[in-house]
Specification:
One of its GO terms (molecular function) is 1-(5-phosphoribosyl)-5-[(5-phosphoribosylamino)methylideneamino]imidazole-4-carboxamide isomerase activity. Its main location: cytoplasm. Keywords: Amino-acid biosynthesis, Cytoplasm, Histidine biosynthesis, Isomerase. InterPro entries: Aldolase_TIM, His_biosynth, HisA/PriA, HisA_bact_arch, Isoase_HisA-like, RibuloseP-bd_barrel. Belongs to the HisA/HisF family. The chain has 244 residues and is of the alpha/beta class. The chain has a single domain, classed as TIM Barrel (Alpha-Beta Barrel). It is 38% helix and 27% strand. It is built from 11 helices and 11 strands. α1 runs parallel beside α3.
């Protein structure tokens, strides 16, 4: 299986930002030009970009279609992107704007039957299901939704297996407790998931600090890793991660 490095750009109010553990009150701003940041990643050798519309993740209504089209046309990047996908029209809009894959998070938790229908209709290669998870006091991996601001009754284990049985190919999983914290990815979580759903292409996200973390995700069996804060703060060079 090919291992893919996804540099990530999270956009809020038109700026490149990062949130700590999904908290909109704990934002760090890294620049005002997402296209320039993405172009720099392309020049470093990236083939893919992970693009998140944080405004839409919270309120719905994807706002980055113009940027998405420019990323494809001007930077030559394949883009997986999400935030605010609430219905089939949103999915089609993103695919038509140039998304290689559409990331579906909250809706994939709230209405799995609907999203599974889209996987069959549009193809398993065009949708990435994002199951962002938080471990509760009982040790259960829960699935917060709406930009991680609301609780869900579904569990990670059950829903991951349900999607695997429905033909899902690409699963992105973020340990919310590690997102933006530079504590290292939760490799135990990914090994656990791959034990449950060994056929899925699993993307690791949250906490990656350095090359050892990139290697760790690959050796744990993940098909890819999403790199955010470590790249933006210069702790990790994209060229080295790609070579890894």
């Amino acid at each position: 299986m090919t291992f893919t490095v996804f540099p990530a750009i999270d956009v809020r109010g038109g700026a490149v930002v990062r949130l700590l553990q999904g908290d909109y009150e704990r934002e760090t701003r890294y620049g005002d030009d997402p296209l320039a940041q993405a172009t720099a990643y392309a020049r470093a050798g990236a083939e893919w970009l992970h693009l998140v519309d944080l405004d839409a993740a919270r309120a719905g209504g994807y706002t980055l279609t113009a940027l998405l089209a420019r990323l494809r046309a001007e930077a030559g990047l394949k883009v997986q992107t999400g935030g605010g996908v609430r219905g089939e029209r949103d999915l089609v809009t993103l695919l038509e704007a140039g998304a290689e894959r559409v990331v579906i998070g909250s809706l994939a938790v709230r209405e799995p039957g609907l999203v599974q229908g889209w996987i069959r209709r549009y193809g398993s290669g065009r949708i990435t299901v994002a199951l962002d998870t938080r471990c509760d006091e009982t040790g259960q991996w829960t699935l917060p939704v709406a930009g991680w601001t609301e609780a869900s009754t579904r569990t990670l284990d059950d829903l991951a297996q349900e999607y695997a049985h429905a033909g899902l190919e690409h699963l992105l999983c973020t340990d919310i407790a590690r997102d933006g914290m530079l504590l290292g990815p939760n490799l135990d979580l990914y090994r656990h998931l791959l034990g449950l759903v060994p056929g899925l292409a699993l993307q690791a996200s949250g906490g990656v600090r350095d090359l050892d973390d990139v290697r760790g995700a690959r050796e744990a069996g993940c098909s890819g890793v999403v790199l955010g804060k470590a790249l933006l703060e210069g702790r990790l060079r994209l060229e080295e991660a790609l070579a890894c």
